[in-house]
From TrEMBL:
It catalyses: L-serine + hexadecanoyl-CoA + H(+) = 3-oxosphinganine + CO2 + CoA. Residues 172-491 form the Aminotransferase class I/classII large domain. This is serine C-palmitoyltransferase. Residues 525-534 have a biased composition (Low complexity). GO terms for molecular function: pyridoxal phosphate binding; serine C-palmitoyltransferase activity; transaminase activity. It comes from Neosartorya fischeri (strain ATCC 1020 / DSM 3700 / CBS 544.65 / FGSC A1164 / JCM 1740 / NRRL 181 / WB 181) (Aspergillus fischerianus). InterPro entries: Aminotrans_II_pyridoxalP_BS (IPR001917), Aminotransferase_I/II_large (IPR004839), AON_synthase_class-II (IPR050087), PyrdxlP-dep_Trfase (IPR015424), PyrdxlP-dep_Trfase_major (IPR015421), PyrdxlP-dep_Trfase_small (IPR015422).
Length: 891
């Protein structure tokens, strides 16, 4: 275990020693024996658990044979193994739903996947699963008053008008001053900050340089995705080095530079070493002192993802450098880091992210961020900006809670070690990893812990070391010694009930007493303690001075929408958390998904044969449009199985050549594979329309691939309409224009896709349809899109071709242009169950990101209800389903 060493070298040596002890020895011979050290009983339990969930999940599939072949008999990629070993078991459990804010004590309930709440109702649990290290998810003093004022009166974001410019600039200056950097950009969601940062790093290379990202193998998914996207636009490569192994890093550096003279090497290559400030899955810090020694020798640049370490490590919360300086490494400084990134959804307990950099990189960082904003990335919500300032302007409160966190962290570590549990921990951090012997026992641990009243999260390979599934215990600066005693007692109960073996107790518990949290921490003087409501009010007053002017006149519908947001704030707080399969989903998000399905499935049903239903349709949310499209495109570019490759089958993805960064970055984010090919079709107005370009590409690829093609077609109605807007007056309406133009495209595909013939030229077709006009047109654009697709010869809704088999589709929409509440964040998709479930458990937009704020989801739901309740009018057409069907027929 990592101890409380006095020197950073001692810390690093102990981390490396711990890492070597955890490393898997050898590759497992089967998918069930995940480690060579498992007992026979443990292996049987793992195998039985996986087989049970395979059977249950296969029964739920509308195409069991294809499902078994693709995900059970032919797992060919790491993602498939992940689905098999972890997502299947997760799918077999009902998801956990948050009914309140994720505070120290939270109310949770079980829902099934169709949104019906289980009768058992909610249960109050002790929360050790929240990433809010300092507990700021609970609104201290009267801070909720200013947040509620912002929701009711201020613009939700500054997306189009720039009205939040002064507030954003104040947040940037506060962050730059707090961390000691020259440049700063803000991102709408946490996942984006690494995408922005890596693009800026690549831009920093001169024309003659090659960019090299030297990445620790423990880096977060968003860092690798950011690197792949950045290198799709410039020459360069990704080189991985063994986690926390400075010796291996130096070997890679020697290979890259070719000599030891940094004065000669510097400038030839744009080299960036990238690390995490804290590896939360392993509860370990990086070997920062050794990395900086190498930096001074070779002259590379250093990037640190401080998502967990910002306001989580160090005496004042300034992250990993301060953590090492507190332990005696006085020669390390913030100027040793060239760029750092962080999310708002952990210690700042809201939604968004930021990147800080040195002066020479500022222009590159600004350009990178603007590109993503222009493609649907959006801006940080006003309430998140306000909440960030409320926290950063209270340094004494930050110190106070960090001191509390250090005390309860050490107390829990001592208690677990005394009981003989196998753990990994770093004293002073919020995370403790408790290792178990197999995935089955990890899932049973989570289930039993929830039953007796504590909530925690688990992880398995590839998120955790192979053969080392773990339970993550996440503490905050609000936990008390009494909470720790309760946690220890309940962990003992769970361990006993599921058969966790502990080693012989190395020390007696009699010498361990609870820390006195009333006494001042040695790092804090009594005068630094923050306890004044008046001081908090003064902070809020200073923040209000830089906020935009309130909106002068709100109509009744806008006021009702904003009231729903204020109500959600009082119930859930700001509440940003991780993916639903780890921590849980807010009931506000699930309610919105259910509403979208309730509205859109009947629209689709209008155009179905009588003997066909859409029971297999599913809906899911994304935090923002950019990340949603990126995730959908990259996920649909997954490689084929080996069997299909041997048969000569290919995946052909057709994308508009005028697509923005969201689509192009999705292509760059996908894992390259020879069985997947991307072609860009012309989407410009001419006398032949855009069907001719598609027809030409299909003809070429059809012959080259020996007629063994799986086609994925992406259609963006915005690209179609914007270039033909002058024709709306000719056709009479937006819906008629969409129907007319889309018919040309589908006609080009029709001759290659007769699904009812015995010989099918295309093996399968997947449609990805982006309808940005869905709500602003009162669903008329969606009616036109679906009806045109249904009436084509492709048979998407044919009674002989179900949407979830050989012909699939996804309908994508966003919430940023809702009529009565502009600037709301988020997006969604609805479509074939097979596609949606893969996105839900495997895509970047859900697996590795926090979802939109619960209050944002509540406001979106109220906005949609306001739209669909309106009578149709000429000025703002909101069509009934009958009217829409009549209009499309006339077109």
């Amino acid at each position: 275990m990592a101890g409380n060493d006095d020197s950073s070298k001692g810390v690093s040596r102990r981390i490396l020693h711990w890492r070597s002890g955890c490393k898997s020895r050898g590759t497992p011979s089967s998918m069930f024996s995940v480690t060579n050290h498992q007992s026979l009983i443990s292996r049987v339990q793992d195998a039985a658990s996986v087989l049970r969930t395979i059977i249950r999940t296969t029964k739920q599939s509308s195409s069991p044979a294809n499902f078994i072949m693709q995900y059970i008999l032919q797992p060919t990629s790491r993602n498939d193994f992940f689905v098999l070993c972890y997502a299947f078991p997760a799918l077999s459990r009902t998801p956990r739903i948050l009914d309140t804010a994720p505070t120290l004590r939270s109310d949770m309930s079980d829902w099934n996947y169709k949104g019906a709440q289980v009768e058992s109702g909610s249960k109050n649990v002790l929360n050790i699963a929240s990433s809010s290290q300092l507990g700021f998810v609970e609104l201290e003093f009267k801070t909720g008053n200013l947040l509620e004022y912002a929701i009711r009166n201020l613009p939700f974001t500054g997306n189009s008008c720039g009205c939040n410019a002064k507030l954003e600039e104040t947040v940037k200056n506060e962050l730059k001053s707090f961390m000691g950097f020259d440049g700063c950009v803000l991102t709408a969601i946490g996942y984006q900050f690494n995408l922005v940062a890596f693009a800026a790093m690549a831009m920093a290379a001169s024309n003659c340089e090659e960019t090299v990202f030297l990445m620790d193998t423990g880096c977060h998914n968003s860092m690798y995705i950011g690197a792949f996207i950045a290198l799709g636009k410039t020459k360069g490569k990704v080189v991985r080095w063994q986690h926390n192994d400075a010796v291996d890093l130096e070997k890679k550096l020697q290979h890259i530079y070719g000599n030891y003279d940094s004065t000669v090497s510097t400038g030839r290559k744009n080299v960036w070493v990238t690390i995490l400030g804290f590896y939360s899955m392993l509860a370990a810090v990086p070997c920062l002192d050794e990395i900086i020694t190498l930096k001074r020798k070779y002259g590379f640049n250093l990037y640190v993802d401080e998502a967990v370490s910002f306001l989580g490590l160090g005496r004042t919360g300034r992250g990993i450098v301060e953590f090492f300086r507190d332990r005696g490494s006085s020669d390390l400084g913030m100027d040793d880091i060239d760029m750092m990134g962080c999310t708002f959804s952990k210690s700042l307990s809201s939604m968004g992210g930021f990147v800080l950099c040195r002066a020479p990189l500022t222009s590159h960082l600004d350009a990178s961020n603007l590109a993503i904003r222009a493609s649907g990335g959006g801006c940080v919500a006003t309430v998140s900006l306000i909440r960030t300032l409320q926290i950063l302007k209270k340094p004494a409160l930050i110190k106070q809670r960090l001191a509390q966190l250090r005390q309860v962290s050490s107390y829990l570590i001592d208690g677990l070690e005394a009981r003989g549990y196998q753990i990994a921990a770093m004293r002073g951090s919020s995370t403790i990893a408790l290792f178990l012997d197999n995935v089955y026992r990890m899932l049973e641990f989570l289930k039993h812990a929830r039953t007796i009243g504590i909530i925690c999260t688990g992880a398995a390979f590839p998120a955790a070391p192979r053969g080392r599934p773990l339970i993550r215990l996440l503490l905050t600066g609000l936990h008390t010694p009494a909470d720790i005693d309760e946690i220890l007692d309940k962990i003992d109960q769970v361990a006993k009930s599921i058969g966790v073996r502990t080693s012989k107790r190395p020390i007696s518990q009699s010498g361990k007493t609870a820390p006195d949290t009333n006494a001042s921490d040695s790092a804090i003087s009594p005068s630094e303690h923050f306890s004044s409501t008046e001081s908090s009010d003064d902070v809020d007053a200073s923040i209000l001075a830089v906020c935009p002017e309130p909106i002068c006149s709100l109509n009744s519908k806008s006021a009702t929408i904003r009231a729903s947001g204020a109500s959600a704030l009082s119930k859930f707080g700001l509440g940003a958390q991780g993916a639903r399969w780890t921590w849980g989903t807010f009931s506000a998000h699930l309610s919105l998904e259910r509403l979208l399905r309730t509205i859109l499935v009947p629209v689709m049903s209008l155009y179905l044969p009588r003997n066909m239903t859409l029971d297999s349709m599913e809906t899911m949310l994304f935090p923002d449009p950019y990340t949603g499209i990126l995730s959908i495109i990259s996920q649909n570019m997954e490689s084929l199985t080996r069997r299909r490759k041997k048969k000569g089958e290919k995946v052909l993805m057709l994308l508009p050549d005028t697509s923005g960064a969201d689509v192009r970055d999705g292509v760059a984010a996908a894992r390259p594979d020879e069985s997947v090919k991307v072609r860009w079709y012309t989407c410009r107005p001419d006398e032949h329309g855009w069907g001719k370009s598609l027809q030409s590409i299909l003809q070429q690829e059809y012959e080259v691939s020996s007629r063994k093609v799986h086609l994925t077609l992406y259609i963006d109605l915005k690209l179609l309409v914007d270039q033909r807007r002058s024709r709306i007056s000719e056709n009479g309406s937006l819906g008629c224009l969409i129907a007319s133009e889309l018919s040309e495209t589908l006609k080009a595909l029709g001759q290659f896709w007769p699904p009812l013939r015995e010989t099918t030229p295309l093996l399968s077709v997947t449609f990805i349809l982006n309808d940005p006009y869905m709500f602003s047109s009162g669903l008329s654009s969606t009616h036109a899109l679906i009806s045109t697709l249904a009436s084509s010869s492709l048979g998407v809704f044919s009674s002989a071709t179900k949407p979830s088999s050989t012909s699939r589709f996804l309908l994508f929409g966003s919430f940023d242009s809702l009529p009565y509440a502009s600037g709301l964040q988020g997006a969604f998709c609805i479509g074939s169950q097979h596609l949606v479930q893969k996105l839900l458990f495997m895509s970047q937009g859900v697996m590795y990101t926090a979802m939109m704020l619960p209050l944002n989801a509540a406001m979106v739901e109220e906005s949609i209800k306001a739209i669909i309740s309106e009578p149709s009018s000429d000025s703002d057409p909101v069509l009934s389903t009958a009217d829409a069907k009549m209009e499309i027929a006339l077109c």
